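Most newcomers find our protein records easier to grasp once they have seen one. Read left to right, the backbone structure tokens trace the chain's path through space. Once this layout is familiar, the rest of the handout is easier to follow. The record below serves as our worked example for the rest of this section:


***
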Amino acid sequence: MTKLRHATVYGALFLLVIFPFPGTAQNSGKSPLEVTYIANEGFLISMGGTKLLIDALYKTKNYPSPSDDVAASMIEGVSPFADVDYVLVTHDHADHFSAEMVSRFLRHHPGTHFIASSEACAKLASDSASGGRRSGVDLKMGQHLTIRGKKAEIVVLRLDHSGSRDISNLAFLVRSNGYTIMHVGDALLAHNEENLRALDWSSYDVDLLFVEHFDRSTPAQDIIKNLIKPRQVVLMHIPAGEEEDVRNAPIKVHPRTVVFGKELETRRFSK
């Protein structure tokens, strides 16, 4: 057990790479920032060659879920899911995380680094860990820590889960190859202004912010515009069939919002 910035990471530690570090390096422009929609809040994100899956390995009847074919492709590493570097889980809810699916994925991809709450990690099958690539994070509300791996810098920040402080909802701020993205899970921004201000946003140049589609309050818009300052916002947690309504909603959380409409839809983003 190792304490980092008043927080705890459980599991074998990985090599820390300080300089040079790809998260702060400039990208040549040859490798784009690509986002592929899986379902609900699940995405495959390619950041100049660094691949991460966020909240993508799950199955539930209550929210849109990956199809059987896409779930099998993720687990087996079929393109575009080959060589995934990181699997991140914001919280242990059925529409974000399946311990069985993640365990199967990690058996097929022993080099992938899994990062989630310590509660989620405890649910994984014991034979799914390999090479010290599992990090169970234990944070108090508003605490954050920085994980520096070989291919990305990942800031993990605990945020309030839509008014439920007992749920360990982790936001991920990821930098790699000159790109920066942030995924907040089920956190509402206005409920977390104090927690968000724990970070020095002047040191981050956020390309994409992933937020819940109904987080449209004036305080949330202010946080996006004046604190996080992303270039674009991806709206998520959209019920099936309501994509067009969300796309045409009269209240815009950001001038440049993106709504994905179907499974495996992929978009490229540039600076």
Summary: Residues 83 and 194 are 37 Å apart (CA to CA). Confidence is low (pLDDT under 50) at residues 1-7, 10-25. DSSP finds six helices and 16 strands in the chain. The first strand starts at residue 2 and ends at 4.
